[in-house]
Write a sequence for this structure.
């Protein structure tokens, strides 16, 4: 898995063009979902075709991650499967469309966009995911939007093919998933963050981070992305700005922050979390 992933939510008709720019800038990981409400998975597939045909960047050179989204997360007008079908069939239909949209025989990572209403239904979906994994159609499996440690522990315990990924919003409201991230680290689960910048404006504007940016001649966004990576997190970025794409990728070549610098930013996170609890 690349250490930085380009997220394609809310790109709409610009999806193909922006993925082209992101990959040509250097991104090799792409995150999408079969959820037309927020993603255009078909236009991701169009970008993959153009990248191979016009630029020689092959499908196997890229890390493609997509998601199954339950009926609860879909626009009723654009559900990509029969919502009246049995749950297992919904998953089969959704994934078949994903492979068609992406014009591929496999995905590198298949993620549940969120747990189902019950643990039992979550595991019904997961068992179908495990079928895809055994068939080589999904190289690894993951969960998203799970913010309770006990809930994720139970999924992990009951799964035969263990989750390799947990993708969550990284923000103060959930105490930055401190306990979940510790569990992930102990069990070799890769924690992916989204809304990494959007959810943390106060940290980006802090004097601590501004001073570090000046010291290293970087932007505050680059400092925070470096911090997140040094925590062992794989962040998503959804920037539509080509300069920001290049700046984001420059983070990969930065030296790790010092222990003291890490501690200063962690203190900011603690303050943010404490403020949200008041």
């Amino acid at each position: 898995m690349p250490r930085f992933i380009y997220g394609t939510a809310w790109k709409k008709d610009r999806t193909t063009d922006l993925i082209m720019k992101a990959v040509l800038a250097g991104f090799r990981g792409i995150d999408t979902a079969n959820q037309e409400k927020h993603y255009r998975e078909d236009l991701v597939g169009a970008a993959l075709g153009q990248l191979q045909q016009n630029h020689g960047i092959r499908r196997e050179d890229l890390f493609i991650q997509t998601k199954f989204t339950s009926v609860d997360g879909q626009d009723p007008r654009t559900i990509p499967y029969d919502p009246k079908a049995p749950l297992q069939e919904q998953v089969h239909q959704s994934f078949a469309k994903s492979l068609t949209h992406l014009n591929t025989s496999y995905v590198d990572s298949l993620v549940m966009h969120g747990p189902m209403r019950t643990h039992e239904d979550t595991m019904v979906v997961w068992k179908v995911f495990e079928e895809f994994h055994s068939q080589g159609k999904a190289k690894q499996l993951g969960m998203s939007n799970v913010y309770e440690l006990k809930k994720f522990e139970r999924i992990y315990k009951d799964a035969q093919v263990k989750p390799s990924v947990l993708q969550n919003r990284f923000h103060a409201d959930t105490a930055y998933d401190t306990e979940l991230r510790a569990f992930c680290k102990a069990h070799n689960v890769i924690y992916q963050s989204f809304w990494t910048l959007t959810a943390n404006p106060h940290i980006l504007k802090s004097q601590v981070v501004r001073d570090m940016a000046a010291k290293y001649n970087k932007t505050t966004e680059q400092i925070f992305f470096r911090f997140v990576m040094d925590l062992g997190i794989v962040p998503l970025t959804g920037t539509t700005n080509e300069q920001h794409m290049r700046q984001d990728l420059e983070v990969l070549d930065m030296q790790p922050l010092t222990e003291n610098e890490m501690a200063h930013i962690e203190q900011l996170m603690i303050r943010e979390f404490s403020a949200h609890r008041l």
Residues 133 and 139 are 6 Å apart (CA to CA). The longest helix spans residues 259-277. The chain is about 45% helix and 10% strand. The mean pLDDT is 97.
